[in-house]
Design a protein that fits this description.
Structural class: alpha+beta
Helix content: 10-25%
Number of domains: 1
Strand content: over 45%
Number of helices: 2
Shape: elongated
Number of strands: 13
Distance between the termini: 24 Å
Largest sheet: 8 strands, antiparallel, barrel
Radius of gyration: 19 Å
Order of helices and strands: HEEEEEEEEEEEEEH
Length: about 210
């Protein structure tokens, strides 16, 4: 009942802001949230596969950051989830390393930064057979990250990437490109949203008692 009430009250209190980045106590990248793509699908016609409702969660505890000139290279493990709606039906769960290059990151903690996923190598389970996914070797997966200093040690981070991928179902011997990119944008972790909703319910309950 609490979870259901939370899910109902969250949109009422927060509206579209839930999909508008996240607030955090660190400006380190990658941000501790989830990149989601609720509007786009990844189609691989040669394989008769379509992936829907994709998400990518950086494991921030694994992140390594390296300065290259004015840029920063972030290397981290990630979890990718999607739903197969093509040849097979069911969930897909892949894991592996991702590398992002954030331009001019060394010049400022906050600001608007161009970014690119320069490599991604994921593998795992899918309906029918194991699969592998990587960042397209011929098309750049670019985006941007906007970090705003809110003061008091807090930051707001907005971020997105237009991700091109390739899929392999034979252990990496052959790769098939997606027909288009998928836009993945940053949102808070679902657990954080539930906590926010629970806090909102307490506020509403307190207002009710005060009347």
């Amino acid at each position: 009942m609490v979870l259901m009430s939370t899910l109902i009250v969250l949109p009422l209190l927060c509206g579209p802001a839930l999909a508008d980045g996240l607030d955090t106590d660190t400006a380190d990248l990658p941000p501790d949230g989830i990149y989601v793509s609720p509007r786009d699908v990844q189609e691989y016609p040669e394989l008769e596969r379509i992936l829907d409702d994709a998400s990518l969660r950086p494991i921030v505890q694994s992140a390594l950051r390296e300065r290259v000139g004015n840029d920063e290279i972030e290397t981290f493990d990630a979890e990718f989830r999607a739903t197969e709606i093509g040849m097979g039906l069911g969930p897909i769960f892949l894991t592996g390393p991702v590398q992002v290059r954030t331009s001019n990151r060394s010049l400022s903690t906050a600001g608007l930064f161009d970014a690119e996923i320069v490599s991604m190598s994921l593998s795992g389970a899918a309906p029918g057979a194991p699969i592998m996914m990587r960042e397209d070797t011929q098309r750049a997966s670019t985006g941007s990250t906007d970090i705003a200093d809110l003061g008091g040690g807090l930051y707001h981070i907005d971020s997105f990437f237009d991700v091109f991928t390739e899929l392999s179902v034979d252990g990496g011997a052959n790769w098939t490109q997606s027909t288009s990119s998928m836009r993945m944008f940053l949102i808070p972790e679902p657990a954080a949203l539930i906590l926010l909703g629970a806090a909102a319910l307490l506020v509403l309950a307190g207002r009710g008692r005060d009347r």
